[in-house]
């Protein structure tokens, strides 16, 4: 087990104006008793609405913030007490904060990081070459970081976080604000990293495509507590997500027609939408074809958006 | 240790390269710094030539106190003066990035914000201090030679500790700059002159309780072989390295407490 947290909590004291001089202070728990176990080599999606406590958790796992209560171990170390030792063994990309030297070319940042992390020149060169080819860094390696586009910079950040060969990679919203192509580049890169299996990845994101394409396991938190821990399928099962069938007919929908294994959701002119009750789509289509003249039809998979939205709204 | 220093030197050099990226701005800063330092120097000479003696001390002795204080302060300012950048790091949450690297967060903060333009002033301070040592009437022996070398270092460590402690307040109170400055720059002004010049309570608070007398006044007394007219025991005149060490230990403990209080920012 490479990451473990028990009853992890972080309280912030917030003071609010209450009158001309008086201030009211009250305590807010950004993270309120999170238990987490991550095995080496896993890719974990850590998701939740804004302000749920994702970043705060990540900052406690990386030794930036001191927990108010609970215990944490990352790579067998206590993050705050062993901060500098742990820093050599983890890589971190915070989407909104740069690890790079703003005024220096990307290549010089990489070279500085090699010295800071004391990486043997050979290992550094191998890892850099791999990242360069996978992320296409060649075109902008000599450009000062401040002149890079967000997509280019994020590729640089990912490389910077991996040059010392970390055991765990923490990514806080790595695809935020990126265009479609850059998002794909980052996603493909992470999938490849996951496939090799020697790096554990903890990823926070609001991008549902990231979740669908990358995360076999999802930990969802809300108001500082874990509300779901499991795969995407389990999430669908929990909320009874169903596939839908949309059929265009050559005649009006006969009032009161019952199709076995499906229920009618809506009828608009000659278009009817049905939800499947877990039976094979083929059976329903066959039954439908016998009853009404079909022009066109499509089967839609349940949408991750709907499930996540229901989760965030607190439906159980 | 050597390799750690090497890493810091590389970070400092990268910072210098970054600054020189904006060539015109850098040139202006160096130019301005030279002018201001020149004016400082002129002030010292004017004061020195007008006032023959000050607080019961002859001109060369007053000059030595001022030179020692100025050298110690400018050296501390060169290395540690940029600690006040911490405010911005805490306010914006950028301090996160320093905590994520396998190096001391404080030394990173100092190295990443290293301001090469401050070097001129420190070098100037060193030259003036050397002149003051020659001008003053010192009966040189081994302890005095050691003290002449150690005193500016101890003074710099003392001021450096103040800079760090002052900056650390930002972990609790982001807009803390001016309060800290009262002690660093205010303290520097105190150490420029013989302690005998100041009123009783002021001298007690700044000189004895906060220890500013140990920066320049007491070491100078030891160098010129005079007892303190204010009655400080003679052996204490040699103790500036000890007070500097105490200041450094306290500042370090305070810094560590501050880091644990760091709250970061949203996302």
Keywords:
heterodimer; A: 316 residues; alpha/beta; Rossmann fold; six-stranded mixed sheet; 10 helices; 30% strand; globular; B: 267 residues; mainly alpha; two-stranded antiparallel sheet; 12 helices; 71% helix
Account of the 3D structure:
With 316 residues, chain A is of the alpha/beta class. Chain A has 2 domains: 235 residues, Rossmann fold (3-Layer(aba) Sandwich); 57 residues, no CATH class. Chain A is built from 10 helices and 13 strands. Chain A has a 6-stranded mixed beta sheet with strand order 5-6-7-3-8-9, with helices on both faces. Chain A has a 4-stranded antiparallel beta sheet with strand order 11-12-10-13, with helices on one face. In chain A, helix 5 runs parallel beside helix 6. The two termini of chain A are 30 Å apart. In chain B, a hairpin with a 2-residue loop joins strand 1 and strand 2. Chain B is built from 12 helices and 2 strands, in the order H-H-E-E-H-H-H-H-H-H-H-H-H-H. With 267 residues, chain B is an all-alpha fold. Chain B has one domain. In chain B, helix 3 crosses helix 8, helix 3 crosses helix 11 and helix 8 packs antiparallel against helix 9. The interface between A and B is medium-sized, with 36 and 28 residues.
Identify low-pLDDT runs of chain B: none
How many helix segments of chain A? Answer: 10
- What is the overall silhouette of chain A? globular
List how many beta strands of chain B DSSP finds. 2
What is the N-to-C succession of helices and strands of chain B? HHEEHHHHHHHHHH
Quick rundown:
The complex is a heterodimer of chains A (316) and B (267). With 316 residues, chain A is of the alpha/beta class.
List the helices and strands and how they pair.
The complex is a heterodimer of chains A (about 325) and B (about 270).
Chain A: E1 3-17, E2 23-38, E3 43-47, H1 54-61, E4 69-74, H2 83-89, E5 90-94, H3 106-116, H4 121-135, H5 150-162, E6 168-172, H6 180-196, E7 200-204, H7 208-214, E8 217-222, E9 225-230, H8 232-238, E10 244-249, E11 262-268, E12 271-276, H9 281-291, E13 294-300, H10 304-312
Parallel strand pairs in A: 3-7, 3-8, 5-6, 6-7
Antiparallel strand pairs in A: 1-2, 1-4, 8-9, 10-12, 10-13, 11-12
Helix pairs in contact in A: 5-6
Chain B: H1 2-21, H2 23-50, E1 53-54, E2 57-58, H3 59-80, H4 86-92, H5 95-99, H6 105-112, H7 119-135, H8 142-168, H9 177-191, H10 200-209, H11 217-224, H12 240-261
Antiparallel strand pairs in B: 1-2
Helix pairs in contact in B: 1-6, 3-7, 3-8, 3-11, 8-9, 8-12
């Amino acid at each position: 087990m490479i990451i473990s947290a028990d009853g992890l909590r972080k309280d912030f004291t917030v003071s609010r104006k209450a009158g001309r001089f008086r201030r009211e202070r009250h305590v807010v728990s950004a993270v309120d008793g999170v238990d987490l176990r991550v095995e080496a080599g896993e890719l974990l999606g850590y998701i939740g609405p804004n302000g749920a406590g994702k970043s705060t958790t990540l900052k406690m796992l990386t030794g930036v913030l001191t927990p108010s209560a609970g215990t944490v171990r990352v790579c067998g170390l206590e993050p705050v007490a062993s901060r500098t030792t742990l820093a050599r063994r983890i890589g971190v990309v915070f989407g909104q904060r740069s690890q790079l030297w703003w005024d220096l070319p990307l290549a010089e940042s990489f070279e500085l990081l090699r010295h800071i992390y004391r990486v043997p020149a050979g290992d550094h060169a191998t890892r850099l070459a791999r990242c360069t080819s996978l992320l296409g860094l060649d075109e902008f390696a000599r450009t000062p970081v401040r002149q890079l586009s967000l997509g280019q910079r994020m590729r640089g950040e990912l490389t910077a976080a991996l040059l010392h060969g970390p055991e765990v990679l923490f990514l806080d919203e790595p695809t935020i604000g990126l265009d479609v192509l850059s998002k794909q580049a980052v996603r493909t890169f992470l999938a490849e990293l996951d496939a090799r299996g020697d790096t554990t990845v903890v990823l926070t994101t609001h991008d549902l495509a990231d979740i669908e394409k990358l995360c076999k396991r999802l930990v969802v938190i809300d108001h500082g507590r874990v509300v779901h821990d499991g795969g995407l399928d389990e999430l669908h099962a929990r909320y009874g997500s169903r596939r839908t069938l949309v059929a265009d007919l050559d005649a009006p929908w006969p009032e009161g027609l019952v199709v076995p294994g499906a229920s009618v959701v809506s009828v608009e002119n000659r278009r009817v939408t049905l939800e499947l009750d877990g039976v094979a789509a083929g059976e329903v289509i066959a039954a439908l074809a016998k009853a009404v003249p079909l022009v066109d039809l499509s089967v839609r998979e349940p949408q991750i958006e709907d499930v996540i939205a229901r989760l965030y709204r607190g439906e159980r | 240790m050597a390799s750690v220093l090497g890493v810091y030197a590389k970070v400092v050099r990268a910072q210098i390269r970054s600054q020189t990226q904006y060539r015109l701005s850098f040139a202006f800063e160096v130019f301005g710094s030279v002018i201001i330092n020149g004016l400082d120097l002129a002030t010292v000479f004017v004061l020195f030539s007008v006032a023959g003696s000050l607080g019961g001390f002859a001109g060369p002795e007053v000059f030595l106190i001022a030179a020692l204080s100025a050298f110690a302060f400018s050296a501390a300012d060169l290395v540690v003066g940029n600690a006040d950048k911490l405010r911005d790091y805490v306010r914006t949450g950028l301090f996160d990035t320093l905590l994520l690297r396998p190096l001391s967060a404080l030394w990173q903060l100092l190295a990443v914000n290293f301001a090469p333009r401050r070097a001129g002033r420190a070098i100037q301070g060193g030259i003036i201090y050397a002149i003051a040592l020659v001008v003053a009437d010192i009966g040189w022996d081994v302890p005095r030679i050691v003290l002449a070398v150690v005193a500016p270092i101890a003074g710099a460590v003392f001021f450096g500790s103040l800079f760090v402690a002052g900056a650390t307040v930002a972990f609790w109170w982001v807009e803390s700059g001016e309060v800290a400055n009262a002690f660093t720059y205010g303290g520097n002004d105190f150490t420029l002159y013989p302690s005998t010049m100041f009123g009783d309570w002021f001298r007690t608070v700044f000189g004895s309780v906060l220890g500013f007398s140990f920066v320049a006044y007491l070491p100078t007394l030891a160098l010129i072989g005079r007892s303190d007219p204010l009655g400080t025991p003679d052996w204490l005149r040699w103790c500036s390295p000890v007070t500097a060490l105490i200041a450094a230990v306290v500042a370090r403990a305070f810094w560590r407490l501050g880091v644990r209080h760091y709250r970061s920012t949203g996302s």
